Amino acid sequence: MSDTTPYVLVLYYSRSGATAEMARQMAAGIESISGIQARLRTVPPVSPTCEAVDPEIPDEGAVYVELDDLRNCSALALGSPTRFGNMAAPLKYFLDTTSSLWMNGALVDKPACAFTSTSSLHGGQESTLLTMLVPLLHHGMVYAGIPYSETALLSTQGGGTPYGASHLAGTRSDRSVDHQERELCVAQGKRIAKLALALNAMRQEAS
């Protein structure tokens, strides 16, 4: 695809690998839709030691996000493990640096979704997803969950919510993303891609 092809920014923070795997499944769903691509990006960890400096490029996985990745995207899929019912600090730290995009309305009317992973089944998946959408609403984005037409929502034995895809990692974070959790990640990726194309066309007509 060319540089002008619209893309969904799949932005995540992952500590044990589960959220990164969900991001890859989300990207697979996005790229199954013709005319749009996925751009995988992550954020660096936040260190309590002021002198700690990470390399500019991670040793493995997605590269670190830049504001232009967010500014120029057609949609956003935001992923984080749960930290006390909320998103992880590194992702929140990045979002706190996006005031310039908010002031310019760069994300207004672009679709967004969220996904998360927890170590316990009732460890705050829904509250994490709901609080993740708050800054997106302040940016004027259009939030999209997962509709119950996705039947895996009714049969999942692990993660999966109407607020967004989720995963049960287990107390040792060693439970793999199962079939139904993957199915819901892919479905959410497909939905956000279709919405991105539709809303992108509407914005172009209005301009």
Describe the structure.
- The chain has helices at residues 18-31, 67-71, 89-95, 99-104, 125-138, 152-155, 179-206; strands at 7-12, 37-42, 75-83, 86-87, 111-118, 142-143, 165-168.
- It has 207 residues and is of the alpha/beta class.
- Strands 1, 2, 3, 4, 5, 6 and 7 form a 7-stranded mixed β-sheet that branches.
- The longest helix is centred in the C-terminal third of the chain and has 28 residues, at 179-206.
- The protein is globular and about 50 Å long.
- Residues 8-193 form the Flavodoxin-like domain.
- InterPro entries: Flavodoxin/NO_synth, Flavoprotein-like_sf, Flavoprotein_WrbA-like, FMN_Rdtase-like_dom.
- It is an enzyme of class 1 (oxidoreductase).
Task: Detail the topology: elements first, then pairings.
Layout: E1 7-12, H1 18-31, E2 37-42, H2 67-71, E3 75-83, E4 86-87, H3 89-95, H4 99-104, E5 111-118, H5 125-138, E6 142-143, H6 152-155, E7 165-168, H7 179-206
Parallel strand pairs: 1-2, 1-3, 3-5, 5-6, 5-7
Antiparallel strand pairs: 3-4
Helix pairs in contact: 1-7
Offer a few descriptive terms:
single chain, 207 residues, alpha/beta, 7-stranded mixed sheet, oxidoreductase, FMN, NAD(P)H:quinone oxidoreductase
What would you say about this model in short?
It is an enzyme of class 1 (oxidoreductase). The protein is 38% helix and 18% strand. With 207 residues, it is of the alpha/beta class.
**Structural class assignment:** alpha/beta
Assembly level: single chain
* Helix amount: 25-40%
Number of helices: 7
The major pleated sheet works out as:
7 strands, mixed
Strand content: 15-25%
